[in-house]
Design brief:
Blueprint (H helix, E strand, L loop, with lengths): L2 H7 L4 H14 L10 H6 L1 H14 L7 E7 L5 E6 L2 H21 L13 H14 L2 E6 L3 H4 L2 H9 L5 H12 L2 E2 L5 E2 L12 H20 L5 E4 L2 E6 L2 H17 L10 E4 L14 E3 L2 E9 L5 E9 L1 H14 L9 H19 L4 H5 L1 H16 L5 H14 L5 H4 L5
Parallel strand pairs: 1-4
Antiparallel strand pairs: 1-2, 3-7, 3-8, 4-5, 6-7, 9-10, 10-11
Helix pairs in contact: 2-4, 2-5, 4-5, 8-9, 8-10, 12-15, 15-16
Amino acid sequence: MKSEEITKSLPVTKRMVWEAYKHVKGNGGSAGVDKQSIEQFDANLSKNLYKIWNQMVSGSYFPPSVRTVLIPKKQGGSRALGIPTVSDRIAQTVLKQHVEPELDRMFHNSSYGYRPGKNAHQAVKQCELHCREYAWVIDLDIKGFFDNIDHTIMMELVGKHTQEKWVLMYLDRWLKATVTQPDGSILKREQGTPQGGVISPLLANLYLHHAFDQWMQEGHKSNPFERYADDIIIHCQTREEAAHLLEEIRERMQQYKLQLHSEKTKIVYCQDYRRKEQHENRSFTFLGFSLQPRTMRSQRGGRFLVFRAAIGQQAKSSMRQVIAEVIRPTRYKHSIVWMAEKLNAKIRGWINHYGAFMKWETLEVFSYLNGLLVRWIKNVYKIYGKRKAFRKLREIQRQVPNLFYHWQLGVRG
């Protein structure tokens, strides 16, 4: 078969592969089962990109096994993250960039996860606004969502939106790609799509668009929601309404071979100065932010209760853990400059993300960092007494005021 005929039958162009490569390179990432890094891929770039194009355009591309890495969860335990090879990430991106524009146009406005022009801050802000209007929330947790996506249902849903055979063929192959476990064993995948795969978020959004978003739009318009991938918050006027809707959702999820996590799914009362009832659940966590009653000061000096978002306790604990791994008061071999270089990018990222809501709650965490520095100074400079060590910290801050990013924001104590 001539190359022109192949290209005509499977419309994958070299330009599509090149654009996909640039996207993957920009995102970085670890090596897959072939242990090939992006730098190693770049060493023979033209040949590697041509190979991907040639295989995809001829229909002979088969995805390699996905390497599994276990990532610790903030609340304990671990979750499996699937890492495709660099070549496979490029191939997946080719298809994703081809189908995403059409699919994204039909997605619900309240779906915020992994979508162009949408982000977590928008989702949390909208959630906070809805909590002012609606007294009750359903905090929905789908048990092992990415691991339990049904392949047959998934392909039926994709078929509703495209009849391109090459798209359906490659999606089916990616869904069925084997998984290489940390111990080296290889497992067949009968269901689910790996977290970490390029195409997985788009498939997840499509699955829940049909299983949840569209269903809510058609039958429960009076109950707004925010969804970020499989993190879902639904707003209700009364507890009775929430309880009834939750049972309907439970049945709806079962139709799509999904289950709600009975312990993590809960109904929450959004208590504020207008809502004075007492209920067991008065807070929930959404995308790392805790939404809960908070005491605020009015312009007249009084205090009143509002239901607002700020950094959650789990996020604070995770940040402190990362900080403590770098700043160890009894370790002398690393300088304070080294510590700043190790932490500043993380500090900036944390503040940019969590500081979007009630910023001072996030900045408080860095008083803990300064406290570790005081203890480190006591040991390194052989200073007796916390006050003297704190004065030494002040001296360093005067000499290099921009050393740590949070110092630039005024968090020095």
